[in-house]
Fold:
Amino acid sequence: MKNIIQIKNLKKSYGEIEAVRDVSLNIAEGEMFGLVGPDGAGKTTMIRILCGLLNKDSGNVTIFDKELSLSRKEIQNSVGYLSQKFSLYGDLSVDENIEFFAEIHNVKDYKTRRDELLEFTRLKSFRDRLADKLSGGMKQKLALACSLIHKPKILFLDEPTTGVDPVSRRDFWKILSGLLKERITIFMSTPYLDEAERCNRVAMMNNGKIIAMDSPQKIKESMTKSIVEIICSPIREAYKIINDKTDFGVQMFGDRIDVVLNDYEKDYPGIENLLRDASIPITDNRLISPSLENVFIHLIKKN
Structure:
């Protein structure tokens, strides 16, 4: 499959902070590619560079077989960008916001496309409502419609579902699935590892570096450690003891703890003894398949 985005040895610093550290990757046409990582990992900087909104320090970015620094305007005309804080105009209606972005992109005959997008995003019955009067999820769908009005070939989404309620988040993903059927390439960043599971490929980013990149399934299969899920109480005290007194990776999920062990048979009895000494009873334990979150936390600790 043809690579629509090619990135080689990309670097960007803010003073002494290296936001993007020697990143190289290729994105195939029609792919949904996920960039995952915590706040401050460098995800937004990467996307802003790819959109031509921020200058790189060094490295090469080629989009549509054109060097970004030489063909910035031409490339920008064929990409859509939804930022973390997309600027809708609160005193304009849904229709008027889309019309405004159509004019920015010099889309003359936009009305048919606008109606398609309103149908697609289920905003048709709200077309006369002011943007300020929309819910958070509806604002994100309107922002998406605005970024699609000029029929971009690549859509860049920077944490599009952050702060959106679960129902709207699900709707948003249905819309993205529909876009993939239209062969639009989607490059998105997200802090949610459950969302990353939906991508064709994922790059895990931390402190400006890519620490793993592959399909979600292959990244999980690369984990050679054992993950034991422990149910006990009080959970926070158990988490603190394991975290402070062992070198094992440990994560807390509600009423249970995941511990990354080198070898279950050898290592688990030591965990049991630690919690028993602290008078924390274990209700249940079981070995589980690694999640992306398990792998990511393990890699961060390892690095």
